[in-house]
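hi got a favour to ask and not much time before my train. below you get a single protein, a line of residues and a line of whole numbers that encode the local backbone shape. could you go over both lines and see whether the tokens make sense for that sequence. a few lines back from you is plenty, here it is:
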Amino acid sequence: MRLWFVGSVACAAVLGAALASPAVSNELMLPLAGKVASYAPLDDHGGSVPNVARGQSLGIVCADAREVGAAVQVVMQIAHTVGETATGYSAVLATEQKVTDGTVHVRVPDVPSIAQHTVNVKVYVTGSKGTHSCYGGRVRII
């Protein structure tokens, strides 16, 4: 009986700590009708790809971006989706960005011929522990 009680208390403590700590995963957040909605990263096995306009801001949750003083870059790589025309480049570096509490807020660049293309969003973080990356999913730039 005593062993069961100790085991139950330990389980409750672990569960409480897990629920109290913020869940950090890589996800993409897009503003929709004045609100921010989050999307889990999509894999290449299907699913809907959210649309985002050039000049619109979006956020990518990345645990590695929490390190103070880390260098953060967001790369939007052209996904070469069937039916999309060639752009003449394979990726775009998003330069307008701000990091707040593990979320990288970035403005979609307004570069020539990126509209009507699907991109893979990736965040690269270089800090004291080396360089790490977070996959933010796919978006279609409209």
